[in-house]
Design goal:
Length: 217
Amino acid sequence: MFDKNRALVNSIEGIDDKQKEFLYSALNIHGHACGGMPMGYVAGLAAMKALGIERELNMDTVAIVYAGNGHAVGCFVDGVQFSTGCTFGKGIMKREAKGKWQFMLVQKKTGKAVKVRIKNEVLDKVFAAPFITEYRAKGVNPADVPADVAIPGFKRPFLLNQEELLEIEGPFTVKLPKPKPCFGLVTCSVCGSTIAENYAHMEDGKPVCSDCTHYTS
Ligand SMILES: [Zn+2]
Ligand SMILES: [Zn+2]
């Protein structure tokens, strides 16, 4: 798998060695060659360029993706995560489910932001291509789609000009809510789980976790 993925990434043109290295990691972690992940990857690179920022190593940039659930879009979100470094685990990848192949990238300290969307025409073509119509829509898992169908889709986003693939709105300024970081721990009085203090519900004066609370939020 690693040799095959390395060869595929080495065949990509138009990105530098560093971007290739992250794309190689992205492909290994994503697990299969498809059109969605590289589309998100390229879109993430374009968003960072428009903001004049580098890949996020810490927690100073946030990506808010408008991808929904239950439709073909998860691969796109993975691409955005890998290129921008705005990962779910670091708490700087957020989802506002709207069923759109779009996201906003925000530099936290300045509030400078851009919105990136995949062009309608590109999505129309992707969804009319055999990868979707002949395989995915018929229940074939992405890793089982033949390479001669999957590979051209993987390469396509890198072959298009930015203007053909994306629309970028901004930079503009947004105000993000600033939650105070919580360092306190409490123990759920029902199940005994250790939980972050700001997630504790108080019932009869005792802390209770979200699974044990009688209240619904
Ligand atoms: Zn995929
Ligand atoms: Zn509990």
